[in-house]
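Hi F.,

I've been meaning to write this up properly since the lab meeting, where we talked about keeping a consistent format for the predictions we share between groups. The idea is simple: the sequence comes first, exactly as it goes in, then the structure tokens exactly as they come out, then a line or two of notes. No screenshots and no reformatting. I'm using this chain as the first example so we have something concrete to point to.
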Amino acid sequence: MKKLIEQLTEYLREGTLVSRSDAMVSGILGALANIFFYVVFKYGFHLPYENFWLRMVATLLCISLIFMHRLPESFSPYFPYFWHTFLIIILPFTFTVNLLMNNFHELWLYWEIFMVFVLMMFVPNWLLFMFDLLTGVLGAILFHNLSVPYVPLNPTFNIPLYSIVISFSIVAGSIFSFANRNTLKELERKKAEEKYRALEALAGSIAHEMRNPLSQVRQNLDEILLELPRSSTENDYASLPKKNIETIQKRAIQAQTAINRGLQVITVTLGNFRNTDVSKKELTCLSATTITRKAIEEYGYASEHERQKIYLSPGEDFIFLGEENNYILLFHNLLENALQILQQVPDGRLAITIQRGESVNRILIRDNGPGIPPNILPRIFEPFFTSGKKNGTGLGLAFCQRVMKSFNGQISCKSEVGIFTEFTLEFPVLDKATINKFERNLYAEYTPFLAGKNVLMAAIPEAYVPSIRQQLMPLKIGLDNAEDNNKALEMLAANHYDLVLSGISPLPAGTAKLGNIVKNKDRNIPVVGCSFSPLPPVDTINGVASVIIMPPALPELLNAMKSSLEMARETLKESLSGKTVLVADDLDFNRRVIKLMLNKLGITIFEASNGLEALNILKSQPCDLLVIDMRMPVLDGFETAQRIRAMPSPYRDIPILGLSGNLDNATLKLAKESGINDTLLKPVKLKPFLQKVTSMLKVNTPAA
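Output, unedited:
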């Protein structure tokens, strides 16, 4: 019954066209008109029938409408019921009573036409209009039949001719109503746009101002944790009791989590104001499993408990045309909404499923939260509409919808109150030629680096071995298989391998042990963990270079193998030693962070506080890479890159890595046009930063 009432309320709300000012004006005019016409018709024109009490009821209803806006907000859901009751009594009931009780007097015939016209303007929904009109007219007929003395009816007017006029009034009223409705919508749209621009400026200003101090606090916490002893020997705690050290470590980790969450909120907030218009030329092939996994990993979780609420079922991977940054922001919006709602659910769970279909591919995001009421569900993608989420802007889902449209896809939602909410991302299936071209380009990119490498699979279930062999076959990789870690250690001792793919199921202990044994024997063989758990894999397992989820998506598998080989410390030192990097940033702290990341790899580093200083350094000092903040005073990164590319000089072709706190579409486009080779979001993280640097310096791992 409650559900039915909610649906009826929503239908009435959608079919009600009235603003607060319209309601107040209607109340004032109605109250004055009832008093005025009672006096005029009764004592001026001496009409046969005028009812004082009927006029008083109508007048009181009009007066109550004037003060309706003073009622508490809790009354708002019931306003549509009051409004339609008001219209029925004031218009069709009152006017038709006077028409009948005055035996179709000519004056009231005219007023009846006026009543129909006004009612149609206030009630644009045809079904509701007919309900209100018929309810009022039937009520008036009943009133007439029960009146004492009974007034016999003797119509003398041309009923067919009058019917034509009434019909025309209904049509004309509907046209005016439609025009009025469009005008209101246009005004609401303009108001929403103004609000959006104001919020965009405010949010952008706050977010940019907060990102730098939060990043600095996070970096300082990282350095504190690095300086604290990690073992539990007494010598490590010479200056402080062990308990105090553990407390400091715990609080520092908690602070890191909170700051990461704050930075995540800033990123999502800025992302929701992005211009999501993406041309077809900017769309690239993305792996659904790889990009979704990346979005899950990069999200700023409030706690490990929150992270463990997520369950990923990769299913069969598919390729879609999209843009990486916008997709990640879209997914982060959905994660943020779901995880906030699941705070009130003790066993909250967010299941993410990837489905490959014949005509359409889907990614399903389903939670077991309280659900969305049916009266709210149709409105959730409207800008500035919020429900069930405190302090929301109402922009996230509207942003998601715009992103999916730019991908030629769509987003939808279904929900049952108290059971679940499920968002579905639908992508058109790509033709085989596009997918084959994507895979050919992928193999062409990784073959020069991975060809000839020897790889050992350890404790990988037999069900996955054939698919991994098939994926790696075009690379001409030597591939052996060990059924467990003990056998893997024997094979590692007897043969040469460049990389190990090790299964992690159900616990990572075995893989970590394998990785640590290999490292302790100075073999320097990176281990890639292969997770079979529906929970998001953790990339911080000791001894493991990176973690992928099974079954592996081809881009994720190849990238994990290449980056793990590149990121091996000895390989990095050998590859990057002797290189020269110029770091240009107006903040000393940001330059220090980058120096800390690179100073142990034998890299020579030069510093500049703006683009002009960077240009002067390049004139006198050859450099292999320029890392530059894209937004700086004096001369920013964009203009610096333009000048470097424009002038004939020895450093004209230097690789440029641009850093920015907000990589929106406009920034990325400007970076590309100015000659910046690649970009990275600030604050920079060690692993992706070193991967970018290694790649841009165009160094490959020497064959073993």
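Notes:
The CA atoms of residues 466 and 472 lie 10 Å apart.
The two ends are 73 Å apart (CA to CA).

If this format works for you, I'll send the rest the same way.

G.
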